[in-house]
């Protein structure tokens, strides 16, 4: 009987030893998987396989009820120890993975404080404003100053001083916006029809030599795809003792090359009549019209682009300048039309339609600084 009891006890011990060995193997396996997990998803898979309802340790826990009290006490303690070790290892590993993820995020979002700050886009520059900046840079580097004048002008500055005769069509209300008459003499102010009055103002306040440009709004009663009641002009004026049409041509050649960013252009001067210049000429630029677009500086076609001429002696007299001693030249271009030609805008009316989608498409960054050295486009 004693031998039977000893044999039975030995069998239980062997069973316990086997279970303990299996438990140690399970612990090593699970610990290895915890250590090998390289992200939270892999670590969660280990936790479910070990501690979930259908996990390995949970399954062993269910078997404790079928053991004897002594076996349950011994094996249960060992199983709880393994469970605690695995749980603690998972918590530590999870914290390690989270710390590593934070380190990677901080590295990817690191800011080099030695670099210049990134400037946010504050808005969009209108193409007209951009072209004005480009033209100011171009002519400024050729020695021209920028002068300004009011939108509402006197009849003298807008017409009389510029040698417009009393019966000139531009003085009629079908072409020009006149203000209501005021004063005893019934003088009517006018929305300036060109920026030439700024030239008059400059000649009245400044003695030659004069080398200036003026840019701004002008107003005429006209409206279609290439004309609007309000548009923008640039005009240039040079008054000295030696300027000639050859000087005018060289200035226009340099300005057009720089503005359209081409290496060569062809200019054609056609005789014309302007009250304020003599001789007068309209200037055509060589272009290519193939493909539905106009390309300046290429092709065999021509496009009228500006008016020009030598300043009329009567204009000099009206501004108090001796035409026997001084002479000079003047030129004028439409800024809106220049923008259309350079940037491919088909309809002038869109410039003033207040459509933010158009402005977003054709507008310019406020940080784009035009200049001859780094480009003006």
From the spread of the alpha carbons, the general shape counts as: rod-shaped
Q: Segments where pLDDT lies below 50 for 5+ residues?
A: 1-14
Number of strands: 10
Helix content: 40-55%
N-to-C terminal Cα separation, in Å? 109 Å
Give a verbal description of the structure.
With 377 residues, this protein is α+β, with helices and mostly antiparallel strands. The chain folds into 2 domains: 2-108; 127-362, Bira Bifunctional Protein, Domain 2 (BirA Bifunctional Protein, domain 2, 2-Layer Sandwich). It is 42% helix and 18% strand. It contains 11 helices and 10 strands. The protein has helices spanning 2-36, 40-51, 56-62, 69-108, 127-140, 155-158, 196-205, 245-260, 313-318, 335-343, 356-362, and strands at 145-147, 152-153, 190-191, 210-219, 230-240, 267-274, 277-288, 295-296, 301-311, 327-334. Strands 1, 4, 5, 6, 7, 8, 9 and 10 form an 8-stranded mixed sheet that branches. Strands 2-3 form a two-stranded antiparallel ribbon. Strand 7 (277-288) and strand 8 form a beta hairpin.
């Amino acid at each position: 009987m004693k031998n039977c009891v000893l044999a039975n006890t030995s069998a239980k011990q062997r069973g316990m030893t086997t279970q303990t060995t299996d438990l140690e193997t399970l612990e090593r396996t699970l610990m290895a998987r915890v250590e090998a997990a390289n992200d939270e998803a892999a670590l969660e898979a280990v936790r479910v396989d070990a501690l979930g309802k259908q996990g390995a340790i949970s399954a062993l826990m269910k078997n404790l009820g079928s053991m004897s009290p002594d076996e349950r006490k011994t094996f249960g303690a060992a199983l709880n120890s393994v469970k605690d070790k695995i749980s603690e290892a998972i918590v530590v590993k999870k914290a390690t993975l989270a710390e590593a993820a934070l380190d990677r995020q901080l590295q990817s979002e690191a800011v080099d404080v030695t670099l210049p700050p990134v400037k946010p886009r504050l808005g969009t520059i209108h193409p007209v404003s951009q072209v004005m900046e480009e033209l100011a840079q171009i002519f400024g580097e050729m020695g021209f100053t920028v002068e300004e004048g009011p939108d509402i002008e006197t009849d003298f500055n807008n017409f009389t001083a510029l040698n417009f005769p009393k019966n000139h069509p531009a003085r009629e209300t079908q072409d020009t916006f006149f203000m209501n008459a005021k004063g005893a003499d019934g003088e009517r102010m006018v929305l300036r029809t060109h920026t030439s009055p700024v030239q008059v103002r400059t000649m009245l306040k400044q003695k030659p030599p004069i080398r200036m440009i003026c840019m701004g709004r002008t107003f005429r009663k006209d409206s279609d795809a290439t004309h609007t009641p309000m548009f923008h002009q640039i005009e240039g004026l040079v008054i000295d003792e030696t300027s000639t049409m050859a000087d005018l041509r060289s200035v226009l050649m340099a300005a057009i090359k720089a503005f359209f960013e081409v290496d060569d252009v062809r200019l054609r001067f056609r005789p014309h009549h302007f009250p304020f210049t003599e001789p007068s000429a309209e200037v055509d630029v060589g272009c290519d019209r193939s493909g539905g677009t106009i390309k300046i500086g290429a092709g065999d076609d021509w496009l009228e682009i500006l008016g020009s001429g030598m300043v009329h002696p009567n204009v000099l007299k009206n501004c108090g300048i001796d035409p026997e001693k001084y002479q000079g030249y003047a030129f004028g271009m439409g800024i809106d039309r220049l923008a259309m030609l350079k940037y491919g805008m088909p309809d002038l009316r869109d410039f003033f339609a207040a459509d933010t989608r158009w402005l977003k498409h054709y507008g310019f960054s406020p940080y784009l600084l035009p200049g001859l050295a780094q480009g003006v486009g």
